[in-house]
Amino acid sequence: MKAKKAVLILEDGKLFEGFSFGAEGETSGEVVFNTSMTGYQEIITDPSYQGQLVTMTYPHIGNYGINDSDHESRKPFLEGLIVKEVCFTPQNYYLSKTLTSYLKENNIIGIYGIETRTLTRHLRNEGLKLGIISTLNFDPDLLLSRLKENRGVIGQDLAKEVTCSNIHTWIHSREKPENQKLKVLVYDFGVKENILRMLSDKGCEVVVLPADTSCSKVLDLAPDGVLLSNGPGDPEAVSYAIKNVEKLVGKLPIFGICLGHQILGLAMGGKTYKLKFGHHGGNQPVMDLTTKKVEITAQNHGFAVDIDSISSEMELTHINLNDQTVEGMRHRSLPVFSVQYHPEASPGPHDAGYLFDRFIQLMEKNPPNV
Prior knowledge:
The protein is built from ten helices and 19 strands. The protein is an alpha/beta fold.
C-alpha cells in the first residue's frame, strides 16, 4: 500500500514533509519532544500531553505494538504523534493491536518519515513552537493561517479537559485489598494510573477526585492525606485548585507531583514560568539535596516553580542537574512536599519510587488536623 503524504509546519514557517499513519485530517498543538527510548504506549496515554504534538526522539517506534495493560489513562490525550520510523508489523507476546490501528481508533493523527533530529534541534535552539499536522492540505500559507486559531497552552486550563467526572474509589483489581490502612484522596488534574497503582500497592485506599472538588468536600471525606496529581497546561490557569490547596495546607499531609507541584507552589504564594523547551523523557538527572543522592528521573512538564518567589516556609529539596531548575520542595514544619518529576515512572527509571514511602510515613506520623 502506497504511503499517504503528510506535512508538519511550525508557527515560524519551518516545514517537514512525511507520511501519514493513524487517523487522517488536521491537528495542531504545541510541539514537544520526548527522549525516552521505550514506553511510547505510556507516553501517548499520559493526560499531561493534552494540547501537544509529541515528537519521539528515538527513531523506531511501534515495534512492540499496543497491549491491554500499559495504558496510563482511559484514552490518549495528545493531539498528534511525530516519529522518524513507524513499525507496521510489530511482534510481541502481549500484542493486542498495532500502534497505527490504535491511533486510528482514537482519532489521533501521526506523521512519520521526517528528520526528527532536525526538528528536536530546532526546538532546543529556538524554543517550543506551535505546529500543525495535515494529511489533507499541504499549502503552507493555508496551514499557517489555521494554526493562528490555536491559543497554545499558556493561560489555558487543560486540567478540566482531562479530569474525571465524579468522585470514585480506584481499585487495582476486581477485589479490594484487605491491607488498606490509609485513605488517600487524589486530585485528578490528569493523573497517570501508575500513581494510583503504587498508592494501592502500598496499602492505601485510593479515592480519585475531579480537579474542582472543594476543600470542604475533601475534609468531609476524612482522608489521611491528599495527593495533587500530574496534568497538562498552565498551572496559573487552574485557579480553583490553587485556592483549594491554600485551604488544605496545614490540615493534612499533602504530596504534589508535576502539575500538582506547581499548583502547590502557587498556593504557597510563589510564581511559575514557562521553560524554553521543557523536560520530557526518562533520563533527567535530579539531586535529592536531603541525601545528596542523584537519581535518573522520568519527566513531562513545560512549566517550573520559581523557588525564590516562595516564602521561607518552603525549602528546596531537589534540583535538576542539567539546568538547575526546581525539582522538589517541602514545608519546613508541615507535612507538605512535592516534586516536579514523576516518581511513578511509566515509562522511565524507578529511582524515585521512594517518594511514595515518604508520603506514607508523613501520613502515619501526622494525623489530619481538622
